[in-house]
Fold:
Amino acid sequence: MPLIKLSKLERRRLTIFFTCLIVSMGAWSFFALSSHYVYQIKTPIRYIHTPRKQAFRPLQADTINLQIEGTGWQVLFSEIRIMSQSYVDVDMKDLDDQGYLVLAEQTKYINRQLGTSQKVVHVHPDTLFFDLSKGFVKKVPVQLIQSLTFNHQYGIADKIQIKPAFVTLIGSSEDLESIHVCQTETLRVQGVNHSIATRVPIRPPLKTNVGIQPLWVEVQVPVDEFTEKVVEVPLKVLNSSIFDEVKLFPKKVKITFLTALDKYGQIDSEFFEASVDLDKWRQNGYKQLPVILSRFPDYCKLVQLEPQNVDFIINK
Structure:
C-alpha cells in the first residue's frame, strides 16, 4: 500500500495544526478543572456515643451519600483521599425520644473528619430514623470466617487483625443470652500471594430483633512467603520424679518446619519445646516413648519431627 507523501509545506501545516489542537485542549482542561462542581460519594457510617439504656435498630442502610463541592482540581487530587475514608462517624448523643437524628446538623462534623479542602454541602438522607426500645447491650468478639487458598509456599504469617475486635449487640436479655460471638460473612480469596486488607460484613444474628453495631469490620491478613528451616531441640522428661535417672536415645529431636521469610532469622530452638511422658510407659507399657511437641510457634507449619519415638532406660 503506497504511503502518503507530504511536501515540506504540508508537513509544517500539519505540525502547526496538531500543536494548536494540543494547546487548545490544554487550555480547555485548565478552565474546566478550575470550575466548581458538585459530585456525590457513597460512604459507610459508624455510630458513636450510642444510647446506653436503650436498644436501637437503624431503619435505613448503613451508608449515606455525601454531596461534595469543589473545583475540578480538588476533585482530581482529593477524591481518592475521600474514597479511602473507611467510614464516617455519626454522633448519636442528640438522638431524641422520637427515634430520629437530623444528619444535616452534623455536616460540619463530617467535614472535619474528611479533612480535605472540599466541602460537604448536603447529606442524603438528611435524617436517620431508629426503632427505639428498652433493651440490653452486650459486647461479643468477632470471628472471621475465611476461605483462602494460597499460591505455592505462601501462607498466613502472623495474627489476623480485626478492627473492631468486638461488636455491640442490642436486644432483650433472653435473645442476647445465647449469643457469645458474631461471625463475619465468608472472606473468599484465591491465589493469595500478598497481605490482604479489606472490609468484611458481619453476618446478621439469627434472631431478627437483635441490633448490631457496626455492621462490618476491617480485616488485615498478613501473608508472606514461607521457607523451610531445621532446629534441634533437647527433650524434656515429664513425670520422672520417682526415678533416679532416665536416659533417652537420642536426647534431642530434629524439627523441620516452614516459617515466613521475615521471621526466619528470629525463630530458633528456644521457640520450641519437646518432651516425653513416662506416664505413657507406666499406663500403656510402651517400649518407646512418643515425642510430644508441647510448644510450637504460631503461624509456623510442621514439616517433619525426627524421631517421633525415642528409646529410654530407667534407673530406679
